[in-house]
Amino acid sequence: MAKGKVVSLEDRIPKLKEQRRKKANRRLIFLLLLFFLIIICVIYFQSPLSHAKSIIIKGNQMYSTEDIEKISGLKEGVNIWSINRDKVSSDLKEDGGIQSVDISIKFPNNLQITIQENKKVAYLLDGNQYIPVMENGEALYGKVASKIPTDAPIIKNMTKKHAKKIARLSEELNKLPNVVYNAISEVSYTPKDTDSNHITVYMNDGNQVLATLSSFAEKMEHYPSILAQLNTDKKGVIDLEVGSYFKAFDTEEEQGEGEENSEE
């Protein structure tokens, strides 16, 4: 039977010393790297590189860059690592015009705010001012337009006290197919004793539509097919409250009176 090789203590000591030396060197290198990393971090946070050189705003259409900076409270020179993202996001969403906010750092020290605005579905006529109404039903009284807008329908005869009806109307408008939505000029609130949600819709083609808020989008989406079935060049009133029927204007004067009422 072969005998195992015996290693003397004198032979083992140099190897043990070498292993201990390597282990100590590794520990020293780790501590030096950690030390220099801390120094670099301290220098970085004290240097201009940790402060926003510029603020980039993306996704804004209705809000100006100045609006976003003012509402967010962010400006050039702010420490990019001390920003409370949740608070900035909450502040920007507060008035209802902005749906989402993303704040990111673009190398080396640029701050980017990317927003997604709520869709504008109408304007609320308030005196001689036009208030944007968003898809979530919020009316932005701080974003007043003084000129007659042409990029969305105008809501008339509603005020702040009709906030719930404005929200419901904006929801219904947002459901409409583009071809129908773009054909609407004005929506006037015309309540009746039998229907507190009654509205009169003035179309760009000269027709008027009578409807109720609760079923407006559901019935109004058939407007193109209703016109096709009428097979007439005459303009008139299409009643969508119960079923649907058409009554032509008796005279051009009657049609003009309807248009004048919509402008009041």
Rg computed from alpha carbons, rounded to a whole number of angstroms: 34 Å
Main CATH class of the largest domain: Alpha Beta
User: What's the number of helices?
Assistant: 8
Major β-sheet strand ordering:
5-4-6-7-8-9-10-11
Distinctive features:
single chain, 264 residues, alpha/beta, Ubiquitin-like (UB roll), Rossmann fold, eight-stranded mixed sheet, three-stranded mixed sheet, 8 helices, 37% helix, elongated
Summarize the structure.
The protein is an alpha/beta fold and 264 residues long. The chain is 37% helix and 24% strand.
Please describe what this structure looks like.
The structure is a single chain. The chain has helices at about 10-45, 65-70, 85-95, 165-175, 180, 215-220, 225-230, 250-264; strands at about 55-60, 100-105, 110-115, 120-125, 130-135, 155, 185-190, 200-205, 210, 235-240, 245-250. It is an alpha/beta fold and about 260 residues long. The strands form two sheets. Strands 5-4-6-7-8-9-10-11 form an eight-stranded mixed sheet, sandwiched between helices. The model has no long low-confidence stretch (mean pLDDT about 90). It has two domains: about 50-115, membrane protein fhac (Ubiquitin-like (UB roll), Roll); about 120-264, Rossmann fold.
Q: What's the SSE blueprint?
A:
Blueprint: H1 9-46, E1 54-58, H2 65-72, H3 85-93, E2 98-106, E3 110-117, E4 120-126, E5 129-134, E6 154-156, H4 163-175, H5 178-181, E7 184-189, E8 198-203, E9 208-212, H6 216-220, H7 223-230, E10 236-239, E11 245-248, H8 252-263
Parallel strand pairs: 1-3, 4-6, 6-7, 9-10
Antiparallel strand pairs: 2-3, 4-5, 7-8, 8-9, 10-11
